[in-house]
Structures are given as C-alpha cells and as structure tokens.
Specification:
This protein is mainly α. The protein has a domain of 98 residues. It contains 7 helices and 2 strands; from the N terminus they run βααααβααα. The N and C termini lie far apart (69 Å).
Length: 181
C-alpha cells in the first residue's frame, strides 16, 4: 500500500517543539526553516509531493542543498501519516508510490497455486491498493513437524509429580536451615 503523508498537520503547540527539535539537530538550516515557514505557512497540506516540490524550489532559489539525512529528518518531524492525503510518489522516479512499511505484510501461498491468481482472489478484494514486490518472492515449503513426527507420550501420574515437588521443597528447606544456622 502507498505511504500517505500530509505536511505539518500536527497541533499548533507541537509545531514549535518539532521545529526546535529539527533546528537542534540541524542548526545550519534555521534560515531555511524560517523561509519555508513564511512561504508555506502552518496550515495542514495533504499532498506531500506538492509540498516537497515547493520546498525544493525554495531551497534552489536560496542556492542551498540539504543532505539526504536532513531531508529525511525534516520529513519525519514535520509530517505524519494521513489516510486522506495523496500517496507519496517515489523520489526521482515516476514508476509508483512509496510503500508504507507499517502496512507491509506477507502471504504464504500454497505451492500449487499461481501467485498472481492467489493475490487477485485473496488479497485485492480486501485491500484494493495493495501490490506485490515480486523481487522479494521466496519459494519454499513448510513442514509441520508436529503433524508428521510427534509421538504422544502421556504425562506422568500426578502422585509422582507431587512426590518430586515435595522432595525438592524439603531439599530447599534443608539448604535454607544450613545457611541461617
């Protein structure tokens, strides 16, 4: 599923704390953050792709470039996931959207089933925007060892277990008396 984020939708009180946290981590970017704040304002915006494009245009006008880690920190501080927002496009590519790692899942497909048919039958009806990364496919077989190799042995009689517990208790008491005397 696609990662959906909106820019700065946090409560106004937290916005100042978030800004301070970012500036503490990246003090050289204080002027850039203030310029972004003036240009974009503080109202929530639900299209991260558009917001990030406007931020990059502003940084380019200012003749400033950020490290990848600074951009990632900015995004983590000033955005949050929002199911109503536009999906986030992959950076530098036009072939889809960023996956949301929190929504990642896996399926155990029966060995005899076609993976694509299974996906259409079992997954798509429940999650319409789900997709598969076929580069991560693994083929294998799960053997249920309990089903094929387990031999049932009945438990020992309760009287035998009670006798062993009583013997262990007596041994503990003997050792405690030895230490306390």
């Amino acid at each position: 599923m696609a990662n959906q984020q909106s820019s700065n939708p946090r409560r106004q009180g937290r916005a100042g704390e978030d800004k301070a946290r970012f500036v503490d981590a990246c003090p050289r970017l204080l002027d850039d953050i203030q310029a972004i704040d003036r240009k974009l304002g503080r109202e929530p915006q639900r299209n991260w792709n558009d917001v990030w494009g406007r931020i990059q245009d502003l940084l380019q006008q200012r003749k400033v470039s950020w490290k990848k880690s600074e951009s990632a920190l900015f995004r983590s501080v000033f955005t949050q996931k929002d199911a109503e927002a536009e999906p986030v496009a992959k950076v530098g590519r036009n072939d889809g959207y960023e996956p949301d790692p929190d929504l990642r899942d896996f399926e155990s497909v029966p060995l005899k089933d076609d993976v694509d048919l299974y996906f259409e039958r079992e997954v798509h009806p429940h999650v319409a925007d789900a997709w598969m990364d076929r580069s991560k496919d693994k083929v294998g077989y799960e053997v249920n060892f309990n089903r094929h190799f387990y031999n049932y042995t009945s438990p020992r009689p309760v009287e035998e277990i009670d006798a062993e517990l009583k013997q262990a208790e007596e041994e503990i008491m003997r050792l405690l008396r030895k230490v306390t005397e």
